[in-house]
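Re: duplicated header lines in exported structure tokens

Our pipeline writes sequence and tokens for each protein into one text file. With two proteins the header for the second block appears twice in some exports. Here is an export where it did not happen, for reference. First protein block:
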Amino acid sequence: MSRRILTMSLLSLAGLSIFSTSSATAQGRNVSGACNSEAKAIIWLKLQKFDSFLSSWKCDEKLRITSFKVGNSRASLVRGNGLGICGATGNCPTWVVSRSMGRPKIILQAGSITDWYEFNYRKGSRYPDLGLRYRIGAGDFYYEKYVFNGSNYHLVSCFSETYGTDGIQRLTRAPLHQCS
């Protein structure tokens, strides 16, 4: 079994923050990459643990980020991008990263979603509800709704969405215990 040494350092270069990650193993595998955000850097470290991770990958090419408002702060939706990370249907792994006690924290690790997601802000809630969509076939999708519970996002509902050859949308709500 290989032993990994993971490090993350914040470099300040002419006022620009660059997050550098590096990984080394006893097997001699040495991987490094620069991420342009702290949220990407924490996910990049997770990805490096997988055997399918390629040393030729570049953080800012393989991870995309969307920042969104949470109270007086911001959180980041980080999504995989491209071959090797995403599946054939265009679904890519997705995470939400927020700061907790001054440190980045993953508050949602979702399955692979399409490039469709939504933020729904409810009155009185600092964190928006999240809607994530998965492609399961040519005209078939799966939708999940997540709500923040004070420390993490948790799944509260799901439904399948199918478009027939007639173009008409059909929705089928699933009981919560059947949600993934």
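Second protein block, exported in the same file:
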Amino acid sequence: MKYLFSFQFLAALFLILWGVSLFIEAIFKIHIPLGRIFFGILLVLFGISIIFFGNPFFAFNKGAFNQTIVLPKDGNEMEVTFATTTIDFSKLTDEEKGRLRKINVGFSNLEIILDDNEYNIDIESGFSSIEAPDNSFTFGKSSYKSRSTREDKAIYRFKISAGFSRVAIRD
């Protein structure tokens, strides 16, 4: 599926469709609108690639119907939709402290791995199972601060919005 839109694949698909349409037109005298069929197949393949590989027009991390281990990138927002995903925040640098990262989770299973640094995580849940080290809930708002969090130091900040999902925070 990696080379779904490669030139060889599309050229072979077009030649096969053209050959089949010529064969059907010669034997059965049925005209097949090859251009419309080919365009329709392109749209279907593009839709399938968006579902399985994410939307190529957005810069933030996105995955669907897959299982991934994601390391945080430069973006401030991550989306997890119809997926089982593990996000490893144990390798964050000190330069990223104070920056708010948003994680949107929908119909997914998300596990967040933390280390011994200072974290402040605001969680909003709608019909989701949230498992923080100090609290578990299914609906509403909550906040989690790691044991070593001090108010006078810069900390890592996260905002998690989950709907119909399971989110487990491990430290």
